[in-house]
Amino acid sequence: MTVPPHPLLRLVALHKRYGAAVAVAGLDLEVAPGEIVGLLGPNGAGKTTVLECLLGLRAADSGEIVLDGSDVRTHPAEARRRVGAQIQPAALQDKITPREALTFFAAFHHTPADTGELLLRFGLTEKADAHFDTLSAGQRQRLSVALAFVNRPALLILDEPTTGLDPQTRRALHAILVAHRAAGGAVLLSTHDLDEAQRLCDRVAILHRGRLVAAGSPDQLLARTGAATRLEFRTARPLPAATLAELQAAGREPGQPPPDPSAAYRIRTTEPTRAIAALTQVMQSTGNELRELQLRPPTLEDAFVALTGEGWDCDREVAP
């Protein structure tokens, strides 16, 4: 019988308060080798506090933090030996270069990654000897993530790593994270980008007001919440309300104004095939014509709304 490997990260009943405000309330979470776990939640949900406690930047009030089998409180140096981290914002001395920064950080580790390889992998070769204060926001971000790879980590802890990156560089970073996972590494990824989390993460943990409200694969969370698929369509002639009522699971979203010939109708349904069949039948029976039809599967934003009763707004500060 094969014994599963121990988690590279294990949190048990993690608590952290700031005065009367509860930042993290009893968080339990594991990240195993070979998986990418997304930590999701709007500003104020507790994500940054969790990462800072993991890395020893803040002391947890209570709870257990184990990194790669070592307790952070009793063996901090050993616990963080195989952990690479990138925390926002990326900031280095103005006149240091990417090559110098990578070489400097590599000097603290016994078997660091090759500096030239990291510069190439993160698209920094042409800027290897440029001063940090001359780098663009995206280049600074790439350097920040590259520094997390210096010690050849088993576990990566990343805070909004794709912020400021262009689409091509974002895809390249995703490929690097996927390769790290394929090699048996693990990633804990804090992100506001729900589409990124849904496409990249094996599991997601949703934080809301310091509490873990749900954890699982994106598909599991969508199934658990019964999030609906949206059908958006336009017709040659307006549909009367009575006709809309005939459609399977039909119902315009709250606040949608009365339709006109140029408006898109919206149907929310957990059975999109039946809804499309019903829509087609209505079009044929009334002699109307579909001009446009789009199928929008449920997203993690829909799951977040269902789980918390609040809309997703990454710029909104959520009070504990």
Summarize the helix and strand pattern as letters.
Answer: EEEHEEHEHHHEHEHEEHEHEHEH
* Cα-atom radius of gyration: 24 Å
Distance between the termini: 45 Å
Supply the CATH superfamily name of the domain at 9-82 and 153-223.
P-loop containing nucleotide triphosphate hydrolases
Judged by helices, strands and strand pairing, the structural class is alpha/beta
| CATH topology descriptor of the domain at 9-82 and 153-223 | Rossmann fold
Calculate the mean pLDDT score and round it: 85
How large a portion of the residues is in β-strands, by DSSP E? 25-35%
| Tally of alpha and pi helices | 11
CATH C-level name of the domain at 9-82 and 153-223: Alpha Beta
Annotation, overall tally of beta strands? 13
The helix fraction, in percent, is 25-40%
Largest sheet: 6 strands, mixed
The strands making up the biggest β-sheet line up spatially as: 6-7-8-3-9-10
Report the principal-axis shape. globular
Descriptive notes:
By secondary structure, the protein is α/β, with parallel strands linked by helices. Among the domains are: 9-82 and 153-223, Rossmann fold (3-Layer(aba) Sandwich), CATH 3.40.50; 228-297, 2-Layer Sandwich (Alpha-Beta Plaits), CATH 3.30.70. Helices cover 32% and strands 25% of the residues. It has helices at residues 47-54, 76-79, 98-106, 115-121, 137-148, 167-182, 194-200, 218-225, 241-246, 272-286, 300-308; strands at residues 9-18, 21-31, 35-40, 62-67, 70-71, 83-86, 155-159, 186-191, 203-208, 211-216, 229-235, 265-269, 290-296. Strands 6-7-8-3-9-10 form a six-stranded mixed β-sheet, with helices on both faces. A four-stranded antiparallel β-sheet has the order 2-1-4-5. Helix 8 packs across helix 11 (300-308).
